[in-house]
Amino acid sequence: MSGVPGWGSWSVAPLLWIGLFVAGSWYVSMLRRVRRVTGKAVGPGHWAFYWSGLVVLAIALGSPLNTLAVHWLLSAHMIQHTLLSDVAPPLLILGLRAPVLPLGLPRPLLKRVAHRGILGRIWGVATKPWVALPIWSGTLLFWSLPPVFDFTVRHQLLHNFEHLTLFYTGFALWWLIITPLPSERRDPGMARLGYVAFSRGASALVCVPLTFLNHTLFPLYVSLPRAYGISAITDQRLAGASMCLIEFLVFGIAMGVVFIDALNREERAQTLAEMVTSSR
């Protein structure tokens, strides 16, 4: 790299921007369909979260953060991973919660993703606690192993696969915690708070050692050019501290979301049932 990238230098990766455009267009079509069915527009309590999730994905993968993560700073890389696994997924799911799902889906697709449909049964298993929690934790811990981490950075296809696994296992985990459809499993609020605590504990196994160790763990990032005058050990400590900070904020927000959701879940389920009945 010739120099540290500025915040005006964004990636032109076609697949990323096409994917974000498709995701945005699909969401707009869902909002329109919900309005046709219910006669009411979906409010910012839904779409603000979804658009924020897409913005987070754009920052994680298309902004100079991605270049810094690969060629300069371990701290940038850890922030990128946290955005992909623990920030973008819950934002997107909060934007998809009822009535956007299920009323925003065409009936043929809805039949496939419903509990008795093929996709619904697969997704139902993927979001079971005994599947989503260990797979998300195992994915995070595996990709954070220093030899695996350094090797992955050097191989672009594997690096892309890493990002996909972090995002999709994070999506399954946060679907389990948020449970966006009121008619889904009736896990009590305390159980879902336990899922949040367990996942944050797994994250702490990565971020806490990085924050306090006095020696570097990632040889690749010791050999890379230094950005902003940050030493390798300081970079590693910043990686752990920034990851811990984001995880702490996510933990607090998730606790609030789950608590509030538990209070009015029955009422929202009844409202959704009335909407579905009136749309027939």
What does this structure look like?
The chain has 280 residues and is an all-alpha fold. It has one domain (14-279). It has helices at residues 14-38, 44-62, 64-71, 74-96, 100-103, 107-113, 118-126, 129-144, 146-154, 156-178, 189-212, 219-223, 232-279. Helix 2 (44-62) runs antiparallel to helix 4 (74-96), helix 8 (129-144) runs antiparallel to helix 10 and helix 11 runs antiparallel to helix 13.
Task: Spell out the key features of this protein.
single chain, about 280 residues, mainly alpha, globular
Largest sheet: none
Low-pLDDT residue intervals, each spanning 5 or more residues: none
> How many E-type strands?
0
Q: How many distinct helices? A: 13
Query: How many structural domains does the protein architecture include?
Result: 1
In what range is the share of β-strand residues? under 5%
Dominant shape: globular
Mean pLDDT: 87
N→C terminal distance = 59 Å
Fraction of residues in helix: over 70%
Rg over alpha carbons: 20 Å
**What order do the SSEs take from the amino end to the carboxyl end, as H and E?**
HHHHHHHHHHHHH
Short description:
This protein has 280 residues and is mostly helical.
